[in-house]
Amino acid sequence: MQNSTYAIETKDLAIFYGAFQAVGNVNLEIEHHKITAIIGPSGCGKSTVLRAFNRMNELIPSVSTKGVVLFNGHNIYERDVDPVEVRRHVGMVFQKPNPFPKSIYENIAWGARINGYTGNMDELVESALRGAALWDEVHDKLDQSGTSLSGGQQQRLCIARAIAVKPDIILMDEPCSALDPIATLRIEELMYDLAREYTIIIVTHNMQQAARVSDYTAFFSLSEDGKRTGQLMEYGDTKTIFTNPGRKITEDYITGRFG
To answer: Is residue 2 in some structural domain?
Structure first.
């Protein structure tokens, strides 16, 4: 499904934890079939913004959201929009691999099944595992527990689980922070392949990773008024952000002067 100029577009997006404004007035335009990195110091709202793209913040009782988030041109925060349906189209991979305590096969099949898939499940499982570059490593042990895999394999299993329901967008919240360098490289290579079919938005603390894998970069930092509200400071193509940023605060963060 692609019927708008941008995969995700935010207009004056603001997010609150109770009375505290965690993120202020974010205006972003996320391109289709590109990898967009969200970077910035700890506590500036990166993951909060990411979770706003599929309404995951609503699982936290104190959180409220203002503004507009357009997914393929439709505001996902309209009252008649089902957040479960939003999450089917906008999947998520978390920081810590979280496979279900089920077999490798059922990790893929379960999510597809509850989303109403009625096709050939064996083919879907194989397709999803191939899409996550995991099939060759697990095809002969699909009945083993997903938790028996290595950390990097578990994360790829979670990616396979996400793509099994055929989303348009995959959100990744620090997907490599718990992985070793070799597993991290596998995930980064996988992102390149997945971007042919999906829009990918990744939160990362790793500047080198953002520079390596992303087409666009959004830099967030805390407001300078003492209120500790996360703000979008600069957004553009990654090469420009890293080699010729438009703001000194961006340059200072990227070069390690703060953060």
So the answer is: no
